[in-house]
Design a protein that fits this description.
The protein is of the alpha/beta class. Helices cover about 45% and strands about 20% of the residues. The N and C termini lie far apart (about 45 Å).
């Protein structure tokens, strides 16, 4: 089955070019031109990934992302955000709301397709892993993309889940931000280490009492405590 990619943008030329490149790369693109149509498409089509522009009519991309993350049925769908190059605050807010990655405009369609491929690959690799981890209050079921804290289900985005799983598997060992960007995001070079910090902040908020397992190693990165 070809992966289904929902592209949300109000510029017809951008949709045409990106749609061509996605089809050329073996994906099935579907399109939405405003925020309300995007949410309808997410619910009806259940895409494997959403490429989401922030500047949209009817409902902006930030609100679309927020609504997706509140709904357990769509919360784990990866979101690749498109932002204006100068709009750093939008990128930060987008990551805070649960976007998995971002590309700045103007972008190379080829680069964007590579990002899509990497994001899908890391999501699938987590699902294919056979690990189930039980660490104190925290239970991580990697094949089913499920996390529980003290028996209660926690809804995580694809990237938040992968970040938690990587740290838990390597518990007791410090992971630099640069290493996490390579292993969780698939970046070959450290583009923006603040991306890691933003996701860690969201992850800690979501896992509540289990957040104590995640240690910040000042000036270096993060470590999952080893209780053994």
């Amino acid at each position: 089955m070809k992966s289904k990619i929902l592209v949300v943008d109000d510029e017809p030329d951008a949709l045409e070019v990106l749609g061509f490149k996605l089809r050329e790369a073996g994906f099935t693109p579907i399109f939405a031109t405003d925020g309300l149509k995007a949410l309808a498409a997410v619910r009806a089509e259940r895409p494997d990934l959403v490429v989401l522009d922030l500047m949209l009519p009817e409902l902006d991309g930030l609100e679309v992302c927020k609504i997706m993350r509140r709904d357990p049925a769509t919360a784990s769908i990866p979101v690749l955000m498109l932002t204006a190059k100068a709009a750093e605050m939008d990128r930060v807010v987008g990551l805070e709301l649960g976007a998995d990655d971002y590309v700045t405009k103007p972008y190379s369609p080829r680069e964007l397709v590579l990002r899509v491929r990497k994001l899908l690959k890391r999501t699938k690799s987590a699902e294919d892993s056979g690990d189930r981890l039980q660490i104190g209050l925290l239970q991580i079921d990697i094949p089913h993309h499920a996390a529980h804290v003290d028996g209660k289900s926690v809804t995580l985005t694809a990237t938040e889940f992968n970040l938690l799983a990587v740290l838990a598997k390597r518990r007791g060992r410090v992971q630099t931000r640069e290493r996490l960007l390579q292993d969780v995001w698939g970046y070959e070079t450290a583009i923006d280490t603040r991306t890691v910090d933003t996701h860690m902040r969201r992850l800690r908020e979501k896992i509540g009492p289990a957040a104590d397992y995640l240690e910040t190693i000042r000036g270096v990165g993060y470590r999952f405590k080893d209780d053994s």
